[in-house]
Amino acid sequence: MSTPFSTSILPPPGSKLPNSAFKWAAALAAAMIVVLIVLVGWELYTGSRQALMKFGSGFLWSSEWDPVAEKYGALPFIFGTLVSSLLALAIAVPLGVATALFLTELAPLRVRQPIVMAIEMLAAVPSVIFGMWGIFVLIPWLRDHLFVWLKHSLGFLPLFKGPIYGVSMFAAGIIIAIMILPIVTSISREILRSVPDLQREAAYALGATRWEVLRIAVLSYARRGLFGAAILGLGRALGETMAVTMVIGNRPQISVSLFAPGYTLASVVANEFTEATTDLYLSSLFELGLVLLAVTILVNIAAQVMLKSMTGSGSSKVA
Amino acid sequence: MDASPYLPTPEYARWRKWKSAAVTWLLVACALAVIAPLFLVIYFLVARGASSLDWNFFTQLPKPTGEVGGGMANAIVGTLTLLVMAAAVGVPFGVFGGIYLAEYGSDRANNWIRFAADVLNGVPSIVWGMVVYLLLVVPFKTFSAYAGGVALGLIMVPLVMRTTEEVLVLVPQSYREAALALGIARWKVIVVIVVRTALKGIATGVIVALARIAGETAPLLFTALGNSFWSHNLKEPISALPLQIFAYSISAYDDWHRQAWAGALVLMALILALNITVRVMSRDRKSAS
Fold it and tell me: According to CATH, what is the number of the domain B58-288?
């Protein structure tokens, strides 16, 4: 080095190596994320190749799932996943948005903090504990009270016909709703907080009541973002596994009645994976996993894009 | 309607006020309904689980099917083992990745990586189990603690990466400039100044991620598999609290149900403890800055 200084505090020459090594290590770790996405897709694809070759696209439309006869079709599981998730959304989105409204627009700090904390804690409860609570507490109650009452008063609808077992699509929908409520609520809250106060003040100045302010100034402004929150909730709902497995009844059938047992993509994998006796059986389960992955990734991308256009920074804070 | 449409009648004004009040109470009711399940779950965990938490529960192995008694000692140790292994996989990749995002990468590359991390975060955990099954269980022909640890570790990576990035970005730029101006190598600046300053935040992120994976069951079903005995070797299947809770609660034995509640109470306590640690740590951080 041609430096005129000969002091020892300057870095010794040749210290570029650790610098670039460190940088590459960091870059490698960051690249890992992208590698992981590709890896997950690729592994599931290789795992399901046999089923893909054998059944082709008919796999998605066939409603027969009979491992003994080596017949595999995904339709009952796709149906179960969609119905249970949509049911969960129908419960969780109104409740979550209403709670977010309460927290951002009404609640004083003293009330807000404990409720926010409780919602965060709700998010921390593991799936398997919700499932167990579902089996021993929720399902007996649904079977003996809510379902009986619904059947009695709304039994003319095909949705509420048929025998009551307890384990059912309905029970799964409720459990999933409880599990996605924290994320729907916290993202809705972020969205509502991003609504400028000017909106509210303008509406109040026109003489609007509190509800009218919420409806005209807040909700309509935040509509897009709230939709994004719902889609993100859907992404979580689709992949819920353990709690659903424990309460949905695990029967590969397509039934209009919400009292009937069902089955979802994630729960059939959880249940039958270690019991899969033949290669084709296992391969079919991998294909179900591949379908699940594809759907959740698409839904998540849609949610991210929608939220990004709303808040600018996306949903980084909500794990 | 007798008056002009521009002049609301007193009845109409009253109706609007009434409607507003009704909605207010409805919102309150919704908020209460949302947090009610938390208290119901905790109530039943304590009411049904606490009485089964005795010395045996923490020190004994599960008894064979149908026999009364026994405990979950191996599952508790198994869960802790898996957490350590998951951290060994998830923390280095997550922290280094976060360092890249905060200190090096170009805006465009970073946006893609962040996007990928958020998408990865939404991948159902059972999918990780299937992937690791193909990667580590099939080639080595055995379910193992390693496979379980890796499955949980991979779930941690995007979580740790995002939180690490977030706290590193908060370190004032002037710290970096001051250190670089002293002629300290870039990597040393990052390790000794930047990461050091944000260490508490990074640790908080790691604990949050651990709390999230501690209760994961689905990715362990066909990686760690579960075990009714002690695992003396990480190449063997290992038990974990969530697996044991799952197996016991879908069984037909009352005594196992009793133990499942106790196990769930212990698991919940572990997760709450991690969350409270985070809360205390981030409160300190806030008051310090």
Answer: 1.10.3720.10
**SS3 assignment, position A71:** strand
Which domains, ranges and CATH numbers included, belong to chain A? 79-275 (1.10.3720.10)
User: How many other CB atoms are found less than 10 A from the CB of residue B266?
Assistant: 21
Domains of chain B by residue range: 10-52, 58-288
pLDDT, tens digit only, all 319 positions of chain A: 445 545 555 555 556 788 889 999 999 999 999 999 999 999 999 999 999 999 988 999 999 999 999 899 999 999 999 999 999 999 999 999 999 999 999 999 999 999 999 999 999 999 999 999 999 999 999 999 999 999 999 989 999 988 999 999 999 999 999 999 999 999 999 999 999 999 999 999 999 999 999 999 999 999 999 999 999 999 999 999 999 999 999 999 999 999 999 999 999 999 999 999 899 999 999 999 999 999 999 999 999 888 887 665 444 444 3
User: For B117, which of A33, A115, A301 is closest by C-beta distance?
Assistant: A33
Q: Would you state the structure tokens that stand for residue B43, as one six-digit string? A: 């109530």
Question: Contact B102/B164 with Cβ under 8 angstroms?
Answer: yes
Q: Give the integer Cα–Cα distance in Å for A312 and B137.
A: 42
Among B108, B96, B101, CA closest to B165: B101
**What is the value of pTM for the model shown?**
0.92
Contacts of B49 in chain A (CB under 8 A): none
Considering only CB atoms, B157 lies closest to which of A9, A33, A125, namely A33
- Contact call for residues B135 and A36 (beta carbons, < 8 A): no
C-alpha closest to that of B175 among B79, B102, B96? B102
**Residues of chain B contacting A118 with CB distance shorter than 8 Å:** 35, 38-39
**Residues 241-300 in A contacting B (C-alpha not used; CB under 8 Å):** 241-242, 246, 266, 269-270, 273-274, 285-286, 289, 292-293, 296-297, 299-300
Instruction: Tokens for A40, please give them.
Output: 């997950």
Give me Rg for the CA atoms of chain A: 25
Q: What is the ipTM score, two decimals? A: 0.93
